[in-house]
Amino acid sequence: MRSRIVSICTALAVMAVVLGLAGCPADSKDESGIPVTGISLTKSSLELPLGDNWEKLEYTIIPENATNQQVRWSSDDDSIASVSQDGTVFFHIQGETIVTATTVDGGFTDTITITVGPSQPVTGINLEKDDLTLTMFAKEILNYTFVPATASNKKVTWVSSHPAVASVASNGTVTALSYTTGGTSTDSSAATGTATITVTTADGEFTDTITITTTMEGQVDIMDLPPLKDLFDGYLIIGNIFDPGYPPYFPGDISAEVPYVVTNERLLRHYNVLTPQNNMKPSYMSTATRGQYNENYIATADRMVNAARASGFKVVGHTLLWHSQNAAWMNNLRTDDTSAADALVWMKEYVTYIVKHFKGRIYIWDILNEAFPDSGYTADWKTSIRSGSDGNPWFMKIGSDFVYEGFLAARLADPNAVLYYNDYSLNNAAKATLVRDMVRDVNDRYMAAYPNASRLLIEGIGMQSHHNTGVTAISVKATLDLFRPLGVRISISEMDVLSQSWNDHDSGKTPTNAGKLQAANLYGEYFKLFIQNADMIERVSFWGVSDDRSWRRISLPQLFDANGKAKPAYYKVIGTFQ
């Protein structure tokens, strides 16, 4: 019988389309699942004063696991109170109306009587807090309540007594902007400012106030902040360094026993790529004798890499070819009688062994680190690589060919790893030009030798970014512009910013609050630049989570202080999108 009815309805629907009439009424019963048998609104009546008010109605479908949960809403008089299709009632004029909820499946209904009363005047306003201390550049929305809570006109205005110290937006968001005392002090708690924020109701001009204290001292713990990796998701991957344990001095960032995982909660919360700070450098991977590898340290590096991967991190291998932290046999190449041919074989053997050992587990390899000195170079990169007592031993024995051969050995050992050149002070135009030329020439040579290759040999440049207050964002931008035509990826690979000049740091001075504020502003400028160039910059890795874990801790270079509290620099970084 049902099939005959459906057929008749189908025929009538066709005729209706032709004649421009309404079609056959839809069968209200849901045959595809659990049918609806009723609907119950949470309230049977609702009374509110006239004003800028609304309320979303709640209901229960019977049974609660019914397949079709759709509901349609209607009001008997939209001029008094209208209702949107998500069940939100809006009150317009005084009066009474009935709002009806109707299930799509079955057409079951329930109603609520809506009474809109006369306007209710404001008699007061209360801010949630009487006072608030904010770290410089931090923001907070001020919460408040009207008296009575059902007041009709809920419009307010905000004003700050010292907007240069703490500003307030039209939605009640207050921002700490400056201090008025303590700039020359080295004590973060000494740099403070004060402003009074006043909220005023449009109806009756009732007011309440809150005292805002701005400070250079951190107030919010790192674990109570939204993850940096989530804030920058879709723009940058955010990294940091990690270390094994050194009992009893340092518990380490990974578990001591199987299963190996990252145990440092700060790393787990905020970062998604990790770099071993020391444990993959040549002096750890090799013994003092050529051809003999330090299996104990390699096992430690294995635990670190496996722990990071098991905890969801990507890993940067750091580093293979360097002038520093080398095994003794590598350093001996500077002065011994080893031939260039033998040195080349030994270098390739070393690179191949290490890269193959970690094959498939390393996202990025820093193949060559800090090839160029701080000064004294020529315009030709091939003759400007470090030499002398602290020179790069591979260059001193093999010549500039070692760059190409080292990268090629790594590519052949693990074709899927992304190969990087890594260096500091790349805001220096002359040094950056040498790096640009080296990367260009090595990649040109590789593409000539492997014309069908789908990737460059040197695929990325790591700009370490161990900055100080003398490094401008403009100089960093110039280097990014210089590197852009190379078509390589960029990583900000070892970031920290001294809260003072290099000379003051080098002389062991303690940063002042003025220096900390300058460093914070620079962090903000750098990160705006990184976001603007996110099409080429894939990663920002900090060289330490907090100041006490930094190799340059005396100059307080990180986003979080020794107590794990967010510094002004943190708020400048997350303010990038604002």
Task: Report Rg.
Answer: 33 Å
For the termini, the CA-CA separation is 65 Å
Count of β-strands: 27
- CATH architecture level-2 label of the largest domain: Alpha-Beta Barrel
Q: Biggest β-sheet, characterized? A: 8 strands, parallel, barrel
Amount of beta strand: 15-25%
Q: How many individual domains?
A: 3
> Would you tell me the structural class of the helices and strands?
alpha/beta
CATH topology of the largest domain: TIM Barrel
Reading off the top of the CATH hierarchy, the class of the largest domain is best stated as: Alpha Beta
Low-confidence stretches: 1-30
> What is the number of helices?
14
Mean pLDDT: 93
Strand order, sheet with most strands: 19-20-21-22-23-24-26-27
User: What do we call the CATH homologous superfamily of the largest domain?
Assistant: Glycosidases
Shape, principal axes of CA atoms: elongated
Quaternary structure of the protein: single chain
Give the helix proportion (percent range): 25-40%
How would you explain this protein's 3D organization?
This protein has 3 domains: 21-117, Immunoglobulin-like; 124-215, Immunoglobulin-like (Sandwich), CATH 2.60.40; 222-577, TIM Barrel (Alpha-Beta Barrel). The protein is an alpha/beta fold. Helix 7 (340-357) runs parallel beside helix 9 (401-413). The protein is elongated and about 100 Å long.
Key words describing this protein structure:
alpha/beta, four-stranded mixed sheet, 578 residues, Immunoglobulin-like, disordered N terminus, TIM Barrel, 3 domains, 27 strands
